[in-house]
Design a protein that fits this description.
This protein is mostly helical and about 1000 residues long. The protein is about 65% helix and about 5% strand. The chain is built from 51 helices and 8 strands. The strands form 2 sheets. A 5-stranded parallel beta sheet has the order 2-3-4-1-5, sandwiched between helices. It has a 3-stranded antiparallel beta sheet with strand order 6-8-7. It starts with 13 loop residues before the first helix and ends in a 13-residue tail after the last helix.
Amino acid sequence: MAYASISSAFVGRSGELEALAGGLRRAFGGEPQGVLVGGEAGVGKTRLLQEFLAAAEEAGAVTALGNCLEVGAEGLPYAPLVAAMRQLHRVLGVELERAAEGYEEQLSGLLPELGGAGPTPGDEYGRARFFECTAKLFERLAGDRTVVLAIEDLHWSDRSTRELLAYLIRTLHRCRVVLVATYRSDDLHRQHPLRPYLAELERLRAVQRLELPRFARAEVEQQLAGLLDTAALDRSLVGWIYDRSEGNAFFVEELAHSYQDVGKVGLSSSLRDILLVRVEALPDRAQQVVTVAAGAGSSVEHGLLAAVLGLPEDDLFEALRTAVGAHVLVPEADGDSYRFRHALMREAVLDDLLPVERSWINRRYATALESDPGLVPADQRAGRLASYWYHAQDPARALPAALEAGRQARRGNAFAEQLLMLERALELWEQVPDEVLRDLQCYDCADEAYPRRSQAGVDSDRLRLVDVLADATVAASRSGDPDLSVRFARTASHVIDDTAEPECAAWFWLQRARAAHFHSQTGEEESKQARRLVEGRPPSAVQADVLSRISATGVLTGASQEHIAIGEHAVRIAREVGARAVELHTLNTVGMLRVRVGEIEEGLTLLREVCMQSRGIDDPYLQTRAYVNLSSQYELLGRSEEAVEAAREGLAIARRYGLIPTYAALMLNNLADSLLALGRLHEAEDAVTSMLEYATGTAWSDDLFLLHAELALLRGDLAGAAEYLAGISNDDVPDRQMQKTLPWSDLTVRVATRSGRFAEARAELLSAIGDGLPPSFDDFAWSLLVHGATAEADSRGLPDADVGRAEVLELIRREAKRLSRAVPLYEGRAHMLDAELARAEGRNTPEVWVRAVEALRPTGRPYPLAEALFGAAVAHTAAGAREEAGRLLREAEEQARKRGDTELLREVTALAERARLPLDLSPFAEAPAVSTDAPDPSAALGLTARERDVLRLLTLGRTNRQIAEELFISPKTASVHVSNILAKLEVGNRGEAAATAHRMRLFPHDDRPPSR
């Protein structure tokens, strides 16, 4: 991976750049402008200024830049202006000298090259004349050109420079000048001379002041993409660098450089030195306060800091006032706590400590907090204490504190924070004396089915290592890390005796089965292992949960009455042992199974009841799962509006409980699918964008890629769609879920068909069908079969594709007979399939297409209604029913436009032009010429007669040489014709051209072009 020290892309700042551009436009109109650009060190002021100066030069302005000097500024008056004037002289040369005529003596201090003798020493009016002459110089220079004078680092400027700039801003009139100055806002302490200076200038009408904020996460990601020269950024790396840099552009660059050098994000020595400069400049007492404050965390309460330091109150206030004045510490909004101006500065201070110093500071904080718990907010107390004892390197106190903090985090549904505490507890477990471990009390696991101590036949009060592993397994799963959950479960398997504690062992196998689901696998093998352990055992929550999980595999592999029976058995056991959450989880599964086997209303009613009843149980996983599954079943049945409503409710629950990483990705995926089906493209794109944050690099990446592929296909970007599909891991997974593989196969067939790669489309269809499509995936199966038949119809007449077509069509018919037609969506697709099969066999069936349209209208979805309407329009056109064809085509255009289907819109327009069918019936629309003759497709597409002949042969699979031989032209001429055809059809290759010709029925009767 390459690395650039500065990002190649200019990131963000569009508003600020537009403000500067606005000032430039006003200056071009003869209004002088002043712009003051502030921001903390490293926020990107210099880069913004560079971009603006480049744009100004491109617009025809003359630019000059001067930098204020940090060292010796007061002894070098006008230093930045001298540098800027020399730049102007190099650019303008004699023109600048001509503008300075008569003022050489006064201006020689700015530009010695003018050759003046210099101002008279001690002349009390010399300064005023110098200012006036400088203003006249700029008025002359900017009389017929725009001049941009930029000064960097105004916070280091000398007084004379500031006064001259202020004079120019006030006195320049009716000339084309822009004065831009940047400054560090974090360097402006209370006594800094620039503070009143800026306030005074800001009151002037021609002056605007801009303050650059730090970058947002998305902007940091763009900057990193440029720095690391890759679009495939690791999302965790982006998050890590964003959190540590807090959006400061310079810190992002330094952290990226450190990552590139050593493979991890850390402070480089140069960055650490820069950060410590301010701290080391503080008095000793203030440095002591800052050092101790760094050990507290991201912020520290005044009372806690005072308790740890033990300083006299006046000394503490003085030290804090100094640290705040130096912009090292910043008072929080609550007025009772402090934080570092930048998190990296705190990190640099901590890195500068000896290990024993850091340990001592944390011990002081832990001791102070134990003595007076009221020093910090109650909701932070457990976590802060656990952190202090951990960093104090006291395992005996850190372990109980970490466990308590984990329990507190779980109560607040902060599963990521709970997981962190549990990982620390596991790390410390072996370091803690036995007497401390014996005193640890057992507590309820987050999962209701986890076996109680009485069932395991062991001490019910003492906390064991396996109990902590169980809690960690659940926390990892709920925080969106299924792989870590599996690792904890496997570790537990080495600790548990299967014979002595079969329920406990089965519970961990069950968690591994659940984790498999996050990788789009069924987890059947893991579920079987769990079932083996609990068979023949007394009823228990874990036994019910195991049976519930086995029942749920039917949703993933193909629902049956047997799966429903297993689920209902699990419900009875759960009720017997009082496992309410397990009962509702299982009822949710049974509801889905009933929908899948055709008991639609019964299943939906059960799903809705579970959603309502789950609100009475403090189980966020149950609540989110209930809404995920309700929304997905609605969508599979073609009830997309209800699916959107359910998905939005579930998303709100996921956010409320902090289950964003895992369940938000699921819910956003469902939401985007339904919005796409409804034609609400912009909302769907927003959902996909939101999903990026949670799904990239996770088990949900495949769903994200599939959505991106669908959006690319709608835009007509076939190459992009194929690239996204290639990124989905659809092979070499033995028990991959059919709800994942069938949509992938369907979209692969659609992309291949539109690209003219009919052999690939057929191969994917046959691969997906295999030995037969599984039951209960009717929506996916209907779509796949329809598009497979479309590929066969579009390729009719191609010699290579004709071979074996009859067998493929028969296979499609056989599979279709097994599918349900119970809802309008399925009925509509069934009619579409019949129409496409007829087209593939050379038969035109407009009445079948109409039946498809009428069946699909009640769904309220533009997809697949738009495709059915277009098919009906084509069929009616071929049958000579022009009026009905025009009506259907106009409705097809409306639905395709609503869906955002660029490719279908192109086909609609081409058919309208070819068949002389009006798409616009408004009184102002130009009526197309009506002819009794058959329409000439070449006129619609701009093809010449010869190009039409070449295209007909191209659709028959001829090579350029074969085309040349049949048309008695040279191969080179044939190649030129093919290139022209591709351009006129707006396609990328011969296959796409052939596919377009077939879809548009350009050659419905002739098999070969006439010989010349």
